[in-house]
Amino acid sequence: MKIKNIAAALFLAASLAGFTGCGQQTAKEETTETTEKAKITDKAYICPMYCENSASDQPGKCPVCEMDLEKNPDYVAPASASADTTGAVADTAAAN
């Protein structure tokens, strides 16, 4: 009888530890995924599976899972020198 109680207690403890461990692992995975998503703002196209080193500035296929790359909704285009479309150059000598 005592062996059954001890076995039941061990089973219960192992079950509770398993549920707690899964919850912590899921939270860690979500944090990692969020961090990975946050890193990809400098590429126009990303893998829908967020494969490592798969983001690109050109459309194509993911080199890891071979899925089609999708437009990155978080893409931030870099500020470039071509932002001045007039082609005019300021004359700083005339201002003095």
From TrEMBL:
InterPro entries: HMBD
Signal peptide: 1-27
Gene Ontology MF annotations: metal ion binding
Cross-referenced PROSITE patterns: PROKAR_LIPOPROTEIN
Keywords assigned: Signal
Name used for this protein in its record: Heavy metal binding domain-containing protein
Domain Heavy metal binding: 45-72
Coiled-coil intervals, chain numbering: none
